Amino acid sequence: MRSQLFGALAVAAALVPSYAAAADCGACNYPDACCPSVCCYPKVHYKTCYQTVVEQCPRTVYKPCYQTVMKECRETVCKPVYETVMKECRFTVCKPCVEWYDVVRTYTVCKPCYETHMCEKRSIVYKPCFEEYQVPVCYQTCRPVYETCFSEVCETCYRPVQETCFKTVTRSVCRPVQDVRTCYRTVYETRYEAYCVPGGCYTKVEQIPGECCTDPCTGAVCHKAPTCRTITCQAPPKVCYRPICSSHVIAEQVPFTRYEQECYQEQVPYTTCKMVPYTVTRRVPHTVCRMVQETHTKMVTQRRCKMVEEVCVKCIPVTTCKMVPEQKCEVCRACRCKVVKEECVKYVPTCVCRIVHEEVVRCVPVTTCTMVPTTVCETRCRKVAVKVPVCECECERPGFFGRLFGM
Known about the structure:
407 residues, mainly beta, two-stranded antiparallel ribbon, 3 helices, 6 strands, 6% helix, 82% strand
C-alpha cells in the first residue's frame, strides 16, 4: 500500500508543469486569439476516496512456560527377604546289629614228642706237640764315646741407643659454619573448574497469532487465523564444577650447619731407639760323640712243633621227634549280624523367601505448564475515507486531481 502511495506522488511530481497550466482551466495553453480577456475560474467539488492506513495494535497473548520440578513419589514395592530356617527331616535307616554267641569246636592237633639219646662218635685228631732248645746268636752293638772340645765363636751383639727427634705433624680441625640452602618442595592443591552441561531438549506448543495481509494485485485485505505449532526447545545449560588437582614447587631457605676443615702444622718430639752392633769373641765348649762297635753272643730259646695222632671218642646227644595226635576242644566267639530299621531325625538348613512390603521414596521430574501473558504488536490495515478536491472546467482535459487519482 505504501509503494502505491509513493508511486502516485512520483507521478504527481512529474506533472507539476501541467498543474500550473490547468490552474486557469488550460487557457494558457491556447493562443491569445482563442482566449477571451476575462478569466474563467474552475468549479471545485470534493470526491470521497479510501486510503489504506497501517496501524500497530498491541495485543495480549498467553505464552506457555514450561518448568520442570522434582516431585517426591512414594510407592510400595515388594522386596524378597531370604531367611535360613532349620527344617526337620525324618528318614529311616537300616542299622546293622551284631550279636555275639559261643560255639564249641572240636579239633585234632599233632603234638610233637621229643626223645633224646646219646650216640658215640669216634674221630682221629692231630694234636701239636712243642719242644724247646737253645741256639747261640752273635750280634754287634755301637757304644757312644763322648769327648769335650772348645771352639772360639765371634758373635755380634746389639745395645740400644735412644735419640730424641722432632717431626712436623699436620692436624685438621673441623669448624662449624652456619649456612643457608634452598630446598624445593611440591605443594598440591585442589581447585574446582566450572564446565557447562547442555540442557535437555523438550517440546512445547507455540501459538502463532493471526495477522492481516493485503493482496498486492487486488488490494483486498485478508485475515489469517491464529495457529499453533510444536517446536523443540533446549533447556538452559547447567554449570557444574569438577575438581582439578594441580601442583607447584615452593622454594624455601633452610638453615644448616656445615663443617669446614682447617689444617695446621706443629713440631712433635718423639724418641727413637736404635740398636748399635758390637762384636764379642768367646770360647764355647761343645761335646763330640763317636760310636765304637762291640761284638756279643747270647743264647736264644727256640720251639719246634710236631703233630701227634690221637683217637677221640665223643658222646653226642641226638634228639628225635615224633608227632602224637591229640583231641582238643575250644569255645569260639562267633557273631551274627541282622539289620534293624531305625528312624532318624535330621535338621537341614532351608532357605525360605518371604515378600516384605517396603515403601520407597524417589524423585520424579514433573513438567508444569504456566501461561504467561505477553504483549504482541499486531499490524492492522484499515481504509480511511479521504475528501479529495476535484476541479471542473469547460476544458475536456482532466485536472490535477483527476490525473493524480485517475478520475
